[in-house]
Design a protein that fits this description.
Largest interface: A-B, 25 and 24 residues
Number of strands of chain B: 11
Distance between the termini of chain B: 40 Å
Structural class of chain B: mainly beta
Shape of chain B: globular
Strand content of chain B: over 45%
Radius of gyration of chain B: 13 Å
Largest sheet of chain A: 6 strands, mixed
Shape of chain A: globular
Structural class of chain A: mainly beta
Oligomer: heterodimer
Number of helices of chain B: 0
Helix content of chain A: under 10%
Distance between the termini of chain A: 37 Å
Largest sheet of chain B: 7 strands, mixed
Helix content of chain B: under 10%
């Protein structure tokens, strides 16, 4: 099975900072990559699909890129409401494996 | 609007089974798959398996093969996840989520509220 590795596992940044999270697949998955946001105590929420397509309603400060094995999620200007854990997930085929998550906090 | 409403919290003894339901509304149930994802306390998300209701065929993560059964009732637009031989490590919140299509290449666009399953003697 393809493994998904996220880095870093956690980060602390100031409001307004640019934040980047990376996700690496152990084999190529084309652009079958989604990103989810899970705020503390809440249900996961789809942010990005197709490696770079913003889900409807997601603020434009979120962007993502990548193809093949290397992917990034960027928050251009971190806001207090972005405190959450972010997960990547590959969906080219079953199993739909998640990355280990990146916890984002405010410094 | 799309809604996935799950059954309530469960407390089970080790060795028992649990069956969690997920009732879908606001869309055509047979046009999308349903996945099940679990999250142990303080841990990440773990995909368990999924089903395509129109075909009734399920895929399972290897870790859960033989212990999990995912089914779907088209007449009530409800999906089910049954996990057997429960152990303490199965204590987790279990989520159902709608797949974006009915192929194995689908992301998860809507999620249920989660069901806490506690396994304790």
């Amino acid at each position: 099975d393809i493994q998904m590795t996220q880095s870093p596992s956690s980060l602390s940044a100031s409001v307004g900072d640019r934040v980047t999270i990376t996700c690496r697949a152990s084999q190529g998955i084309s652009n079958y990559l989604a990103w989810y946001q899970q705020k503390p105590g809440k249900v996961p929420n789809l942010l990005i699909y197709g490696a770079s397509t913003l889900q409807s309603g997601v603020p434009s400060r979120f962007s993502a890129s990548g193809s093949g094995t290397d992917f990034t999620l960027t928050i251009s200007s971190l806001q207090p409401e972005d405190v959450a854990t972010y997960y990547c997930q590959k969906y080219n085929s079953a199993p739909l494996t998640f990355g280990g998550g990146t916890k984002v906090e405010i410094k | 609007q799309v809604q996935l409403v799950q059954s309530g919290a469960e407390v089970k003894k080790p060795g028992a089974s649990v069956k969690v339901s997920c009732k879908a509304s606001g869309y055509t149930f047979t046009s999308y798959g349903i996945s099940w994802v679990r999250q142990a306390p303080g841990q990440g998300l773990e995909w368990m398996g999924g089903i395509i209701p129109i075909f009734g065929t399920a895929n399972y993560a290897q870790k859960f093969q033989g212990r999990v059964t995912i089914t779907a009732d088209k007449s009530t637009s409800t999906a089910y996840m049954e996990l057997s031989s429960l152990r303490s490590e199965d204590t987790a919140v279990y989520y159902c989520a709608r797949e974006s299509g009915f192929s194995s290449s689908s992301y998860l666009d809507y999620w249920g509220q989660g069901t806490l399953v506690t396994v304790s003697s």
